[in-house]
């Protein structure tokens, strides 16, 4: 049914909206833009008072804005969840692991459980491209690993490579970028957002007559905070942060304008979000109240991400939804929008929200969502392991939220409808509605494994930059 709706709408739009012959492509393009370290308090359509983001606001005004969408609390847990449609407790990426910097573990394309949305979309006839930040593989060892993960083309910052810091550590200016044609090289005196955006736009121009799946994990505004080409004289941390947000907004506008120029705007579904909240120490203002950045925490400020979906004529305009969703839902949503099917032998945790964004009034939303992620993992004799056997996490529905400890016990119950800042713990409340909510969440917690999975990767020869490791395992996939 969803595929028929998509194809019918695209056909009618291409016939009605333009006198220029459209491509024969029937499937919609999908563009997922994910920022790096930015909370809702820095997007003006979400109430930010210290910044204006007109291009992002235009996406919200012309599309659907989610109020209750979860990322994971930190970088690599979010990225692996997006790619696989699985929660970090299932993939083992419950803690952050900076592969180019720390080595040893990596996102192993050889393992079925690490199948990505890109490989599935490519199987469904899509051209795939990624630009921005990857961080879960080392391009020195696998220069074409993104091809293995399903991307036809890419321009990715390598991450800071230990032992190669002189060229790779520069993040924003003179970035060290890997592409399939030229490998890893420094783009001297260029700004990373410009390099990545130009590469993406070039790809869009070359493939505009094909169905495209585009992934832009933008490396901004992650520290080090610095001036931008548009505002080179800003000095303070907060001024640099604002300048970076304005540059992000400008970049979004540039991409949208290109889609319009190429006459593919009305068949391109844009999804805009961020990987986690703003860094601590940066404070915004919403409704006259200060909102501090809480990246790395499981508070709503840390994981309830800005999340906007836009496609003129296909996604209803001006909609604000309280439906809950999280990053595990992206893979099944992409596949349903492509008219494909999830392979029967591929386990995922997410649920497609394609019917919701297409205006299906019979859509039944998820009953609960989760966010899980900790600080850095650790080296053991058995490989890279997470800090806790059962990682701390939060689970919520449309109204209530619980905090679950590493002992698999519920420590906090919050009513987000009346207490969005999570100041009141109703764990010991005698009210029937609180007892009922707690019973519901306890059943969810009880259904989870007592121990999270370990990262799955095939051990390989040690490298000089690896964190010290003496493995006792045979050369098989560590799980």
Automatic annotation (TrEMBL):
Q: Which residues form the signal peptide?
A: 1-19
Say yes or no: keyword Flavoprotein present.
Answer: no
Q: Which UniProt keywords apply?
A: Calcium, Hydrolase, Metal-binding, Signal
The answer to keyword tRNA-binding applying to this record is: no
Gene3D superfamilies membership = Alkaline Phosphatase, subunit A (3.40.720.10)
SUPFAM superfamilies, A to Z: Alkaline phosphatase-like
Molecular functions (GO terms): arylsulfatase activity; metal ion binding
Which residue numbers delimit the Sulfatase N-terminal domain?
28-339
One Pfam family name is Sulfatase
InterPro entries from the entry? Alkaline_phosphatase_core_sf, Sulfatase, Sulfatase_CS, Sulfatase_N
The UniProt family comment states: Belongs to the sulfatase family.
Q: Which PANTHER family match?
A: ARYLSULFATASE FAMILY MEMBER (PTHR42693), ENDO-4-O-SULFATASE (PTHR42693:SF53)
**The protein's name in its UniProt record:** N-acetylgalactosamine 6-sulfate sulfatase (GALNS)
């Amino acid at each position: 049914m969803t595929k028929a709706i998509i194809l019918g709408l695209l056909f009618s739009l291409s016939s009605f909206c333009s006198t220029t012959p459209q491509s024969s492509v029937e499937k919609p393009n999908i563009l997922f833009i994910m920022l790096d370290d930015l909370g809702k308090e820095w997007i003006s359509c979400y109430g930010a008072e210290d910044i204006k983001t007109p291009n992002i606001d235009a996406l919200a005004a012309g599309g659907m804005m989610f109020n209750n969408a979860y990322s994971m609390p930190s970088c690599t847990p979010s990225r692996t969840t997006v790619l696989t449609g699985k929660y970090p407790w299932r993939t083992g990426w419950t803690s952050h692991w900076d592969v180019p910097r720390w080595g040893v573990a990596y996102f192993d394309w050889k393992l079925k459980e690490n199948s990505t949305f890109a490989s599935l979309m490519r199987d469904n006839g899509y051209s795939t491209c990624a630009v921005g930040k990857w961080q879960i593989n080392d391009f020195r060892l696998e220069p074409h690993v993104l091809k293995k993960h399903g991307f036809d083309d890419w321009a990715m910052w390598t991450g800071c490579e230990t032992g190669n810091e002189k060229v790779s550590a520069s993040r924003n200016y003179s970035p060290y970028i890997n592409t399939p044609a030229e490998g890893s090289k420094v783009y001297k005196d260029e700004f990373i957002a410009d390099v990545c955006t130009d590469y993406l736009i070039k790809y869009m121009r070359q493939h505009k007559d094909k169905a495209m799946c585009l992934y832009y994990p933008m490396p901004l505004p992650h520290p080090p905070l610095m001036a931008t080409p548009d505002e080179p004289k800003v000095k303070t941390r907060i001024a640099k942060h604002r300048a970076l947000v304005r540059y992000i907004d400008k970049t979004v506008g540039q991409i949208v304008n290109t889609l319009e120029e190429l006459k593919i705007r009305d068949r391109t579904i844009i999804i805009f979000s961020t990987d986690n909240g703003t860094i601590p120490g940066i404070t915004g203002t919403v409704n006259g109240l200060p909102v501090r950045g809480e990246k790395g925490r499981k508070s709503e400020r840390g994981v309830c991400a800005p999340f906007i979906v836009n496609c003129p004529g296909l996604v209803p305009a001006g909609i604000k939804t309280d439906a809950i969703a999280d990053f595990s839902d992206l893979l099944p949503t992409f596949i349903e929008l492509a008219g494909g099917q999830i392979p029967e032998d591929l386990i995922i945790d997410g649920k497609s929200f394609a019917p919701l964004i297409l205006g299906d009034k019979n859509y039944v939303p998820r009953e609960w969502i989760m966010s899980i992620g900790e600080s850095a993992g650790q080296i053991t004799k058995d490989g890279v392991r997470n800090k806790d056997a059962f990682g701390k996490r939060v689970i919520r529905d449309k109204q209530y939220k619980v905090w679950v400890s590493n002992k698999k016990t519920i420590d906090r119950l919050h009513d987000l409808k009346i207490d969005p800042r999570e100041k009141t713990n109703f764990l010991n409340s005698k009210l029937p509605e609180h007892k009922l909510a707690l019973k519901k969440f306890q059943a969810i917690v009880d259904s989870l494994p007592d121990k999270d999975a370990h990262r799955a990767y095939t051990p390989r020869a040690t490298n000089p930059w690896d964190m010290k490791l003496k493995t006792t395992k045979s050369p098989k996939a560590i799980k």
